[in-house]
Amino acid sequence: MFNSQVFVVDGLRSPFLKANAKVGPGPFSASELAVQAGKTLLLRQTFEPSEIDEIILGCTTPSVSEMNIARVVSLRLNCSVQAPAWPVHRNCASGLQSIDSAAQSICSGRSDLVLCGGTDSLSNAPLIFSKSASRWFSQFSTAKGLRDKLVKVKDFKPSFLLPVISILKGLTDPVVGESMGQTAENLAKKFNLTRRELDEYSVRSHKQALSSMEDVLKPQTQQIYDAKGNFYEHDNGIRPDIKIEKLATLRAVFDKPDGKITAGNSSQITDGSALLLLASEKAVKKFALKPLAIVKDINWSGLNPTEMGLGPIHALIPILKRQKLERKDIDLWEINEAFAAQVLACQAALDSFKYCSKVLKYRKTFGAIEPNKLNIAGGAIAIGHPVGASGARIILNLIHLLKKNSLKRGLASICIGGGQGGASLIELC
Description:
The chain is α+β, with helices and mostly antiparallel strands and about 425 residues long. The chain is about 35% helix and about 20% strand.
């Protein structure tokens, strides 16, 4: 809960581009994605980029040349060199963390106008050498003279050339030793979810996204172009021809051979950015801005890392308690679709008196969220999940949906690798 009003002035995102293993890394770095979306976003404002007080961006996989990616983006957008810019990293909720940090900065009086959001180019996540390979290369490079180097050559093994895929390492919890996919399998077992239920939910995500392409997704998306002049206008992971029969043929990725989590009912590896402009009441008046929404509250919660997918409901219940709201008071909901199993497990837990009362400390059964109020424009299963950007995307999407449907209040939530959840309450102006 914030001690002063925090307004969302505007927002824009890039198309979310699905990684293609056959083609290799995508054409955009994380900073390029943010800059292209940011240029258009700032061009349509009543103030100059130099008027922005602070720039905060979430990112989980910056390249080696953009470690403070917020600073790189801010300078390329012609923000003031005096404006502080800094990155945040809270795994899947990095984009939401940037919004929280921006809101806190505004409430403290430190800033009045903040550019925030998130960006990631997961297809460009680096490949790294194993420790044994790194040790050999280090020893070879420091060997003195040709003789010593030839001696080291004899120790070389072809396996040294096999890289470690950093994104796979990043998607594995180092404490419990389980991948994010395995945690989804845990939830499918815990709540007795069937493979068909997961696949049916995935079909729904794609169909909802496809039907929302023109009137919801397109207005929040900025066309971008690469160095070769190729244009990218829309999210390219949405499958118009998706069928439950096709999904049923896909093999389990984790609990082989009988697991339920497949590539078809999981979020996609994606490149993308999502940016928001947040402003204080003072900035709204100064620049004659017309805010879209108010960030009413943001909450964070922790839970067992092996069940990280339940993080959204752990984060959203405290918001409702603080704001004295019931389920019926929320017009629309977003739960980021890391996995179909994770969203359906959240629904099952909310519909369980035992889980609500004993775990969530809610006085009664909360009840599953109505399907016609949850992720009604699809989600990450169809659109994609560029980790650093997703937390900002679901907020931007929620605002567009509320406006389109003439509704007032929405709640967006997201699970976080490592066993956390984040949620935000948004009200339309």
